[in-house]
Write a structure and sequence with these properties.
Layout (H helix, E strand, L loop, with lengths): L5 E7 L6 H9 L6 E7 L6 H6 L6 E5 L6 H11 L4 E4 L5 E2 L3 H11 L5 E9 L5 E4 L7 H7 L12 E3 H6 L12 H12 L2 E12 L5 H8 L1 H18 L6 H10 L10 H21 L4 H15 L8
Parallel strand pairs: 1-2, 1-4, 2-3, 6-9
Antiparallel strand pairs: 4-8, 5-9, 6-7, 6-8
Helix pairs in contact: 5-12, 7-9, 9-10, 10-11, 11-12
């Protein structure tokens, strides 16, 4: 059998309310040369009964021996994927009808890009549109700079070259409490180029059982520690050298929640750190110095909103 152009990986865990719609949004794509790899992460509900009832030869099902988590399940998909490109799909989201075609065409026409994502819309558990979620940043140089502070690729809009991840031995790290994708993208950015397409490619479902939202609520402190770990590694992978004290302050100011009050003294100290990062980028001959400077300035300005000088 001829290998497909795209392998779509969908880990499934307790998604019985939404998984059929998610699967059908892939099966009904305008682009049809794909395989859909569904990984059963043993949620204990009827999700996989629903998947197995869908008769389509493009679906391949793999079972974990027990609940292993989304990173492990996604790695199973990577192990078995045969496509030239790999697309990720969440079990409760909805892919726009032309998502795979748009991303396939983009990667075919941009051989210098290794990973591509796109825009998404936020919807509630009933599929009603809530809002556009965030700005879509398309410039690869700016995206690389943004990864020092935050994730800029939405998982269910992403597609990347299988050869790229295999050549660089990239995989999803376990134990990151819903941030395995952020960690994965920072590692991709260290050895490749990432872009976004300024087009809505998926609908993201905002509901109480969403894995990311649940982890934010139930593991706030642990997630905070993981964000620090990701940021420290991202700084290191991009060639920046900071002291332990500087790293600690950087991570404290640019934390995930963005809710803690900051003193003016801390803001001025972190400004010095950002200027140091920009200076090191210039010395290293980085090709995104202008974008890095822009992101540093914007990120610092955003944090002034929660400085204690405002009361």
């Amino acid at each position: 059998m001829r290998e497909k152009s795209v392998s779509v990986i969908m880990p499934v865990y307790r998604a019985e309310k939404y998984v059929e719609e998610a699967v059908q949004s892939i099966l009904n794509q305008t682009f049809q040369d794909f395989e859909l790899l569904v990984i059963d992460d043993k949620g204990g509900d009827s999700s996989m009964d629903i998947v197995r009832a869908i008769q389509d030869t493009r679906i391949r099902v793999f079972e974990n021996d027990c609940n292993r988590g989304i990173a492990y399940a996604t790695n199973i998909g990577l192990k078995h994927a045969k496509g030239k490109y790999i697309a990720l799909m969440d079990d409760d989201d909805i892919a726009m009808k032309d998502r795979l075609q748009v991303e396939y065409d983009y990667l075919e026409n941009h051989p210098d890009i290794d990973v591509v994502g796109g825009g998404d819309i936020s919807m509630d558990e009933n599929g009603q549109i809530i809002s556009y979620r965030r700005e879509v940043i398309c410039n690869p140089k700016r995206i690389k700079a943004e990864f020092l502070f935050r994730n800029r690729i939405h998982n269910a809009t992403s597609m990347y070259r299988r050869e790229f991840v295999e050549r660089n031995h990239l995989f999803y790290r376990e134990g990151f409490l819903g941030m395995q994708d952020y960690k994965f993208w920072t590692e991709c950015a260290a050895c490749g180029r990432i872009a976004n397409i300024d087009k809505v490619l998926s609908k993201w479902r905002n509901h109480g059982n969403n894995t990311t939202l649940r982890n934010r609520l139930e593991h706030r402190a642990e997630r905070g520690a993981k964000v620090i770990e990701i940021q420290k590694e991202s700084l290191k992978m991009q060639g920046f050298v900071l002291s332990d004290k500087e790293q600690k302050l950087f991570c404290e100011v640019f934390d995930e929640g963005g809710t803690s009050k900051l003193t003016l003294d801390k803001l001025l100290e972190v400004q010095k750190i950002l200027l140091k990062i920009i200076s090191q980028a210039q010395d290293n001959g980085d090709d995104n110095v202008r974008e890095l400077e822009y992101v540093c300035k914007n990120s610092w300005a955003d944090r002034t909103k929660r400085c204690d000088i405002w009361g």
